[in-house]
């Protein structure tokens, strides 16, 4: 389990440009050891065998950053490290914490991939969604399904306030479809809905 270095605030008042995470006893002198902030801006690559302390090193560096008043972003696919780090948040930093846990059904996170998309990125977003859907429904996927779904997503991206729930409505509800297609700016997508799908 990581532990914040003793007298953390004293260390940072002494040298706020170093993230201390260990100590050395070189020539029988115990000294705090760390990495300079400027060096960390050039990226780090932590390697070692299982159980050698890679995660503990990162945890201690994160804790030191928190105690120094710096902002930290942690992406933890398993959740273990995030739960450990939460225990080290000092009372004066509690209101700074934003904790997203997509697996927590008690506090679900809403995310609308179709919301506020830069028009220059519409095809990129549609392509990304198509890739996701293709992986999920690999056994049912066909080129025709891809063609229709791609035009559906591109049409929805032109209409403010739509969500992925609009996919089924586009295919089944003619009134909804007409309302969406009226706003479509891409002539190829518009032609698909007015000519191909309508016939």
Automatic annotation (TrEMBL):
InterPro entries recorded = HerA_central, P-loop_NTPase
- Indicate what this protein is called per its UniProt record: Helicase HerA central domain-containing protein
Q: Which domain of life is it from?
A: Bacteria
In which organism is this protein found? Candidatus Magasanikbacteria bacterium CG10_big_fil_rev_8_21_14_0_10_40_10
Q: Which Gene3D superfamilies match?
A: P-loop containing nucleotide triphosphate hydrolases (3.40.50.300)
**Domain Helicase HerA central positions:** 41-81
């Amino acid at each position: 389990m990581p532990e914040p270095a003793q007298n953390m605030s004293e260390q940072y008042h002494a040298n706020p440009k170093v993230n201390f995470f260990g100590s050395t006893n070189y020539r029988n002198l115990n000294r705090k050891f760390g990495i300079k902030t400027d060096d960390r801006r050039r990226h780090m690559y932590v390697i070692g065998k299982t159980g050698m302390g890679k995660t503990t090193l990162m945890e201690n560096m994160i804790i030191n950053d928190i105690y120094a008043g710096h902002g930290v972003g942690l992406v933890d696919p398993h959740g273990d490290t995030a739960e450990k780090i939460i225990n080290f948040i000092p009372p004066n930093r509690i209101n700074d914490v934003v904790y997203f846990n997509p697996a927590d059904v008690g506090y679900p996170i809403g995310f609308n991939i179709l919301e506020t998309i830069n028009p220059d990125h519409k095809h990129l977003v549609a392509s990304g969604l198509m890739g996701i859907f293709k992986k999920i429904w690999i056994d049912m996927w066909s080129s025709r399904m891809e063609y229709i779904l791609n035009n559906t997503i591109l049409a929805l991206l032109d209409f403010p306030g739509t969500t992925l729930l609009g996919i089924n409505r586009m295919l089944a509800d003619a009134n909804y479809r007409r309302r969406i297609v009226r706003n479509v700016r891409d002539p190829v997508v518009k032609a698909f809905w007015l000519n191909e799908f309508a016939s």
